[in-house]
Amino acid sequence: MDLLQLQKRVYQNKIEKGFNVTDIFQEFCYTYGELSEACEAYLKKKDDLGEELADVAIYLLGLSELLGINLEQEIMNKMEKNEKRQYVKKMVSLQK
Length: 96
Hints:
Helix content is 71%, strand content 0%. With 96 residues, the protein is mainly alpha-helical. It has a single domain, classed as MazG-like (Helix Hairpins, Orthogonal Bundle), CATH 1.10.287.1080. The protein starts with a helix and ends in a 12-residue tail after the last helix.
């Protein structure tokens, strides 16, 4: 299954379960909350880090579908842009 199909499957599940499909701001908040839970799982070395990251991806896919954005294509476009970009790394010293 490609990412676009998965995006549509996530959206369909939201419809079938009666989840939010109209309040975009709320979906951003839920996505942020899931990312926070994943960070906490990482910091506390919990066994459910993978599941929490999956929740982040699911909310992001659902949000993309609500907004009419093909996330798979956007990721491919951004990867191509990043691969061509030249980065300048700055050294940061924590010593005073």
